[in-house]
Amino acid sequence: MSPGHAQEAQTPPAVTVQEQPPLPQQQELPATPAPAAPPAQDAAPAVPAPEPVAAELLEVTPQSVTVTASNMAAAPRVRFTAYRDSYLTAKKVWQVSRGNVVMALRLIPAKLSATIDDVRVALQGDGAPVAIKVGEGGVFIVPINDEIAAQGGSFLVNKGKGELTANMVIQPSVPRDAWTVARVAHVLHDARLAVHAITPWYKRLFASEVQSLAFCAPERGSALQLMQDQQLIATLPMNDAAVNDINQPVYCKMFDGEDKYPGHYRLVMPEQATVLIL
Question: Which of 150, 179, 209, 216 could be stapled to 252 by a disulfide with Cβ–Cβ 3.0 to 4.6 Å?
């Protein structure tokens, strides 16, 4: 997927409601003596709220996974591409996969002189730009923001016209410590459904299908641990050569969803490992 090249952004019209206004700057106040602390009182310990499941995240705030606070002073100002098409695709991926898979965009230099080392991305609607976290290699998860999509929002970058293009990437959204053999099979199933759902019918005969879910490390010799509770069941070498989402070589242990290990076995990966949909 190539959303297009960057274009000059137009100054958005002033509105009275902003998606996420910038935080006011703190002012220095004269020092005053600190008041005496009140006597300590017994209080019941706070009970943490349970984590929402994927279905609850979808119904409430799927965009909260990626959207961060904005700093207007550092906000990018060059229009990269319209938001709505990416929004519709990202929302379909989230819905079909039940939150197990997300859509990301990988920024790619379109000119020999362009770089992505210092790239910044923001989402602009009628209000203030909303900063988006950009990972290694210029990859960022597309936020799902219904309000900005309805406003005809755009992605902004801190690069010049025509310096960048982008490809679409599908990534798992499972926490590192939540992988089990059963979860691998579920994510693979949902990733295949998501890719099928976002591929136009006239391209399905030629589109690549999801083959495996891979636990990968940047160097050969790492291993994945298969655990039952605290007991080590097996050590699985990560030696299969592949490339990651930014075309760097990696070495992986791949699963095709038909693995015969018991579903409750946990998968513990090395610190530098990542999980890819291949």
Answer: 216
**Taking a C-beta distance cutoff of 8 angstroms, is the pair 187, 99 a contact?**
no
**Residue 1, CA atoms < 13 Å, CB-side half-sphere:** 19
Q: What is the pLDDT of residues 51-81, one digit of tens each?
A: 444 444 444 434 433 444 444 445 799 999 9
Q: What is the pTM of this model?
A: 0.72
Angle at Cα 61 formed by Cα 59 and Cα 66, nearest 5°?
A: 140
Q: Give the three-class secondary structure for 165.
A: strand
Per residue in 166-206, pLDDT (tens digit) is: 999 999 999 999 999 999 999 999 999 999 999 988 888 88
Count of beta carbons in the 10 Å neighbourhood of residue 225? 15
